[in-house]
Amino acid sequence: MTASDSYFERAKAVIPGGVNSPVRSFQSVGGTPVFMARAQGAFLWDTSGREYIDCIGSWGPMILGHGNQQVIQAVQQQLELALSFGAPTEQETRLAEVICRMVPSVDLVRMVNSGTEASMSAIRLARGYTRRDYIIKFAGCYHGHVDALLVKAGSGALTAGVPDSGGVPKSFTRHTLIARYNDPEQVKSLFRRYGDEIAAVIVEPIAGNMGCVLPEPGFLSSLEDLCTHYGSLLIFDEVMTGFRVHPAGAQGLYGCRPDLTVFGKIIGGGLPVGAFGGRQDIMSHLAPEGSVYQAGTLSGNPVAMTAGLATLEQLQKEGVYAALTDRTHQLVTGLRLAAERHQIPFSASCVCGMFGLFFTQADKVTDYESVQSTDIGLFRSFFHYMLEAGIYLAPSPFESGFLSTAHDSEIVMRILEASDEAFGKLRKKKEKADNG
Ligand code: KE4
């Protein structure tokens, strides 16, 4: 029994499934989740002291790597002043100013404590502002465990193979319309039928919760045009892509201007933060100014604001995104070559700082259905071969992988060396099976 085995048994006695978030359970890849104890830079160490190269980064927040000294020192200073007031502080204004400056579509921003809370609040705001009820979301996209959006959700919901969650009354999802990602025609037909009843379209501009699926050319702009035409709001869920793929998120990368944007992960620098922001005329409908209520005890917590500020300050330095783009490209190009060398059906997607791995003959994956048709068994085996080699990938085929600015070229080479071994093992396993 490994140290993680005994930690997991102990955890399962007091925490449902032994985890505080389903994807961590290794349910979709099998085996025992690794209990981590320490992290630094691009590295993790588990409770038995084993070292791993981290390709998750806490699911996105740790874009600067773990233990970034500027973040740690700023948080340590704030800890000496106060943990929380429940009163306004200058720190939350400063983080809001930085977000508004880095993301031109955001005039005002409200802090919350998770991406889920941010998505839920943005939906309520869109409904309050438009006085409409319907929401369009996309199969395979995940916006947190918001009742109305847990319909063909991605991430953990997909991993668990239960796209529609238990405990959500049918009445809570009857205003949720589902379209296929990268299918503007389907969205058009929904607008033709529900047009002036649609409050908003919410979309992951890069779908990071069914692997990493990139928007096809014209897809995002078609959503902008339809929302403008029908007077609906376009909500970009940039919890994952915000400040990761570009200083202004995916909207900066693709030149879009959503009406509202949802943030999380990176803006907390590893501490619990979410946020939603957008046009002033929409945001002014939020309490206390407007009729749309939203609140939170620890929203704008000064320690979390400080961690987020210190993170965003470093991301504004010259060359940060260019270097991260190069590292991600180096990784994905190497993975594709290694899979090809070992004749493994494999496709990989990448954009600055995040990537997706798909075991499929298809040259790219564009939506939920095509992700569902990938070889989950091959993914599982690859995941465990890489874990055994000390590479900590996302324990699910329905997640994205993440690199940080602490992953230098040499570390990426170590990941690629491990992947060559892993693809080689897959090939041997396949040859053995073919030869009976
Ligand atoms: P949180 O409530 O987990 O902070 O954020 C929800 C959320 C909203 N929108 C997007 C695009 C997201 O990716 C997420 C959360 N992402 C998952 C990873 N796929 C978090 C990991 C987990 O659920 O444990």
Give an overview in words.
The chain is α/β, with parallel strands linked by helices. It folds into two domains: 37-61 and 322-434, Alpha-Beta Complex (Aspartate Aminotransferase, domain 1), CATH 3.90.1150; 69-315, Aspartate Aminotransferase, domain 2, CATH 3.40.640.10. Helices cover 40% and strands 14% of the residues. It is built from 15 helices and 14 strands. It has helices at residues 3-12, 69-81, 90-102, 115-130, 155-159, 170-173, 184-194, 219-230, 249-254, 280-283, 302-315, 320-341, 368-372, 376-388, 409-434; strands at residues 36-40, 43-46, 51-54, 108-112, 134-138, 176-179, 198-203, 233-237, 260-263, 274-278, 347-351, 354-358, 391-392, 401-402. The strands form three sheets. It has a seven-stranded mixed beta sheet with strand order 4-10-9-8-7-5-6, sandwiched between helices. β8 (233-237), α9 and β9 (260-263) form a beta-alpha-beta unit. α3 (90-102) runs parallel beside α11 and α12 packs parallel to α15. The longest helix has 26 residues, at 409-434. The radius of gyration is 21 Å and the shape is globular. It starts with a helix and ends with a helix. 51% of the residues are buried. The mean pLDDT is 96. Bound molecules: ligand KE4.
